[in-house]
Specification:
With about 300 residues, this protein is α/β, with parallel strands linked by helices. The chain contains ten helices and eight strands. It has one domain: Ureohydrolase domain (Arginase, Chain A, 3-Layer(aba) Sandwich). Helix content is about 35%, strand content about 15%. The protein has an eight-stranded parallel beta sheet with strand order 2-1-3-8-7-4-5-6, with helices on both faces. The longest helix has 18 residues, at about 70-85.
Length: about 300
């Protein structure tokens, strides 16, 4: 694999939901040896530390359930800028923090792709579709809204204007198994590529992923991967406040990452929803580091072509 300059960006976002603990995520990734794993693979690593949300004043949300709107908007400003600043220098890895951070990271990377005159794509590895808006969410937790924001859905007036809207047809969601009725209504009529756990059970995980990667490669696209801990089954990744049974296995997770590595298409990565307070002696943090290593070139075997005749 081509050696990369990895830029680690700590995003201790803990305002996208009410259950606290994700603010410890970035340091848990550091403790689990994320930088060391990248260096061992021959990449150079720069850790710019943990960022902070931009102080902003916003009009209260129309939906009274919305939690910590101003802080979420502040983080979106910060991470949108951070993505655009880091992307020309290397491959940003955003260490979260809850999934609300993706409003900023995805918007910023889409803006970078636009500046490079290349199509932008996003792979959403998650149990949830996160395509709510502040007006449609019935929990008020804004970690369920970043896809809604980056695709230009209405209701995000408090947020910064999108520098580049993400085309829903350029998004693939893999691992879905908890989607609200309001989200179904949007997704059923839309162009997002949806791969739920039933499809994975019936067809496997590699075929739909390869279809999406072929689409990205055909137009020389830039691919952002947003990896939520709850993409994985909670039996192997317990450190998440949104556990949904029936998720991806460790083997499926590594297969996805190795295919992404083989593709050479990934230009940025989110690692989100790690809540170390809920972990079992670092089990989930270590697994997420191992998956990231697979994405960046770690292999068990090189798998040369062999003749058995």
């Amino acid at each position: 694999m081509t050696q990369k300059h990895i830029i680690l960006i700590g995003a201790p976002v803990d305002c996208g939901k009410r259950r606290r603990g994700c603010l410890m995520g970035p340091d848990a990734f550091r403790t689990a040896g994320l930088a060391e794993a990248m260096t061992a693979l021959g990449h150079t690593v720069e850790d710019i530390g943990n960022l902070a949300p931009k102080p902003v004043t916003v009009t209260p949300a129309k939906n009274p359930l919305v939690h910590e709107l101003a802080e979420n908007v502040g983080w979106t400003h910060t991470l949108m800028d951070a993505a655009q600043n880091a992307a020309p220098k290397g491959m940003p890895i955003f260490m979260g923090g809850d999934h609300a951070l993706a409003a900023g990271t995805v918007a910023g990377m889409a803006a970078h792709a636009q500046a490079q005159d290349r199509p932008f794509f996003a792979l959403w590895l998650d149990a949830h579709s996160d395509i709510h808006t502040p007006e449609t969410t019935d929990s008020g937790n804004l970690h369920g809204t970043p896809v809604g924001y980056v695709t230009g859905r209405p209701g995000f007036d408090a947020y910064p204007p999108l520098p580049a809207r993400v085309d829903p047809a350029n998004i693939c969601m893999i691992g879905l198994r908890s989607v609200d009725a309001a989200e179904h209504a949007v997704l059923d009529d839309g162009d997002v590529m949806l791969v739920d756990m039933r499809m994975i059970d019936e067809e496997g995980i590699s075929a739909p992923l390869q279809t999406f990667l072929d689409k990205v490669a055909a137009v020389n696209g830039m691919l952002h991967v947003s990896l939520d801990v709850d993409f994985l089954d909670p039996s192997v990744a317990p450190a998440v406040g949104t556990t949904v049974p029936g998720g991806a296995t460790v083997r499926e997770g590594h297969l996805v990452m190795e295919m992404l590595s083989d593709s050479g298409l990934v230009t940025s990565l989110d690692l989100v929803e790690l809540n170390p307070f809920l972990d079992n002696r670092g089990e989930t943090a270590n697994l997420m580091v191992d998956l990231t290593a697979s994405l960046l070139g770690r292999r068990v075997f090189d798998r040369p072509t062999r003749s058995f005749k």
